[in-house]
Amino acid sequence: MRKRITNGKWLVILVTLAAILVFAELLSGQTNSLTDAQVQEKASSLLRQMTLDEKVAQLSQLPGFSVPEFKANMGDRSVDEIIRTVGAGSVLWVPEPKEINRLQHLAVEQSRLHIPILFGLDVIHGYHTIFPAPIAMASSWDPKMVEGAQSVAAQETRAAGIQWTFAPMVDIARDARWGRMVEGAGEDPYLGAAMARAQVLGFQGEHLGAPDRVLACVKHFAGYGAADGGRDYDSSYVPEEEMWNVYLPPFKAAIDAGAGSLMSAYMDLNDVPASGNPWLLRDVLRQAWGFKGFVVSDAVAVWSLVTHGYARDLQDAVYKAFTAGLNMDMASGSYLKYLPGEVQQGRITMQQIDDAVMPILESKIRMGLFEHPYFDESRIATVLNDPQHQQAARVAAQRSLVLLRNDKGLLPLDKSGKTIHSIAVIGPLADAQADLLSMWGAIVKPGPTVSIVQGIRDKVGSGVHVEYAHGPNIRRTIPSPFENLPITSSMKEQPEQSPAEAHKASEDAVALARRSDVAVLVLGEINLMSAESASRSSLKLSNGQEELLEAVVPTGKPVVLVLVNGRPLDISWAAEHVPAILEAWYPGSQGGNGVADVLFGDANPAGHLPVSWPRSTGQVPIYYNHNLTQLPETSPDFKSRYWDIPSTPLYPFGYGLSYTTFSVDNLKVEQPVAHVGATIDVSAEVTNTGSRAGDTVVQLYIHQRAGSASRPVRQLKGFERVNLAPGAKQTLHFKLGKDELQFWSPIKKQWVVEPEQFDVWVGEDSAAKLHGEFRLTE
Ligand code: BGC
Fold it and tell me: In this structure, what are the phi and psi dihedrals at residue 657, rounded to the nearest 5 degrees?
């Protein structure tokens, strides 16, 4: 007789299964199933047992390598000794996995309360498998791909013992002179928010403590990209309305996606350094947004409050940073040195200290560190060498490349050996490896990298002769400080050459082009030219590269220019004289393969620019979402413009070509008149009008014609990357709700949706012409 299972028994079975699952998750070492209340209870109970010094240690991140400011503050106290006696909130930059476990043993076994350390590292776009730099991934306009890439980065990072990454970097950048444009998603708050969200989900998963994920740290809060003159670390002056409408939305999106931590920026924001700025750290972050995680300073940024001329001395800096809302000091030792005294002297209360420590303890609990402080070193190689990671990086590279020009369909090139027998691959970046990884990718622990010349060779096989000429070496006039950091072994400038050597190298390259059927020039910037501490006054191709290009083109051979760089460069000459231009950015470990896939048509490019591309350095800062002046371009005589160049950028924001063509038409606005509060539905049809399958990015822009404040001429408010077979057509639907229609009004000092007339455009870039309109009424 069949035994009947009663409801009660089912319940027991289900509960047992659930328990097994939870247990298995806990065993996997990285997650826990505690409720918010349980997390708080555990953190509070620890807090009750902690001495003041132990609490301050949790508010400190110790350096994993020698930092002069830390040494100056801590004297002979070593990192080991601090961990053993009082513990540590975090340690950063311990690249050796063995060392991570060793330090963790010290904390867990020898410190009084056994509180594990949170280990942090700059895994910005990959740990071992390096994905394209963030500006490149933003060019894919593919948040799902970006989320997947950062989840691979998280897996590798966690496998190597690091639980916290200082990413995503979500600073809006409108000035290409600023070296750190490469680390973010470009100039637009809407695209920036989408990329911020995707990256947080990739790093952290759906919740803190998800298996194989890491704690994200959104940076640099806030306004860092607005540095005066594009000079890194220089002051930013950003009016409140521009902060809310332009610079803050990506941070808000990251926090809404669950980002558990945030890094305060280095620079002065409106005369108050961001790392001691109560408006940012308290009013915006905690009060307006209800952020519950913790804030770490940028490296030694507490100390720099003194340099800014904001704090009298380091003790004053500690007081100002801490009371502004900065939970954790990065690497300067200043909290360790001065916070206890501030409490003893009554300037800071124990309650304030407890409030700052709580979110740090809670994060460690949520991350599962108390249950599983150590990691299994024997697993590292298997995770890092997963071939699927390389495949993901290759797809990411393909999807990030932006085709800027393709005159008479020069690309894709024929790899069969029938029409092209020889290819000259030329340029100082064509055989580069570390440079394809961008600075952070090269600093961390990159695995093997495929150079562009290698990718081309592998693609064409023996049927096409590929020869390489390096051309002149490229290097910064003033070297990067990163070259000499103890942690940055793989980053080097190219050696200095005499003018005669550089000239000879260029002549050899031109000669090679002359005797080949096609020339592929790979030019741009080494990774140290476009990074932190890498601002430049000119966007020109440096060190004789422009001259080389202008010497190769007159050979009459078809020329393809591949750019490897972290910011738009001045390529005005190339835009007229070089038939094919492909923007590769820093394309990552599989960059060479990704570029070859696109050059030879195995992948159809569909990246679109996340920045407006200037014609010359003098045009920056340039961005599409500016306001109208009283004398716009359409006025008859007097105009707000330069007299020596067109006012438009060389390539507009959102621009990118494909090997096929698309048309976007049939724009429909479902509600031409609607009440404030309604959602407007907009649709348009996109058709692949060419003969190849391909992707395009359909973008929607709006403009509010009048209101309580002047509004930008256009603002991106929707996009979708679509794949279409030749001849295929798809109707895309966009929704314009409160999030898309509101702005922060400087008159009303709040977010508003106003009853006004709106324009809407849909197309393949920010110059789209397909137009509709709607009106919002009271
Ligand atoms: C950078 C941060 C980085 C930190 C730690 C600083 O110099 O500005 O972006 O996360 O160093 O490496």
Answer: -105, 170
Taking the centre of ligand 1 as the mean of its atom positions, its distance from the CA of residue 299, in whole angstroms, is: 6
State pLDDT tens for residues 144-195.
999 999 999 999 999 999 999 999 999 999 999 999 999 999 999 999 999 9
Q: Enumerate the β-bridge partners of residue 682.
A: 669, 734
Cα–Cα separations (whole angstroms), residue 684 to 130, 571, 762: 37, 34, 7
Cβ pair 343, 322 in contact under 8 A: no
Give me ligand 1 centre to Cα 432, in Å: 25
> CA-to-CA distance for 756 and 775, rounded, in angstroms?
6
Q: Whose CA is nearest to atom 12 of ligand 1?
A: 122
Catalytic residue among 122, 298, 597, 695: 298
Residues in the chain where the model's pLDDT stays below 70:
1-32, 488-490
Dump pLDDT digits (tens) for 568-612: 999 999 999 999 999 999 999 999 999 999 999 999 999 999 999
Tell me, in angstroms, the distance from the centre of ligand 1 to residue 370's CA: 27
Q: Are strands 680-688 and 580-583 parallel, antiparallel or unpaired?
A: unpaired
Residue with tokens 């409490």: 343
The answer, yes or no, to whether any atom of ligand 1 lies below 6 A from the CB of 219, is: yes
The predicted structure's pLDDT at residue 489:
62
Helices 314-324 and 334-344 meet at what angle, rounded to 10? 80
- C-alpha–C-alpha distance, residues 541 and 379, integer Å: 44
**298 catalytic, yes or no?**
yes
To test ligand 1's pocket by mutation, which of 181, 491, 532 has the most ligand atoms within 8 angstroms of CB? 532
CB-based contacts of 331: which residues, under 8 Å, 6+ apart?
61, 62, 63, 67, 69, 70, 92, 299, 300
Ligand 1, atom 8: closest residue by C-alpha? 298
What is the per-residue pLDDT for 488?
63
Residue 69 CA to ligand 1 center (angstroms) comes to 15
pLDDT of residue 306: 97
Q: Which atom of ligand 1 is nearest to the CA of 166?
A: 10
Q: Is the peptide bond before 168 cis (omega within 30 degrees of 0)?
A: yes
Q: How far is CA 721 from CA 68, 237, 259, 686, in A?
A: 48, 35, 25, 11
Please tell me the pTM assigned to this model.
Answer: 0.95
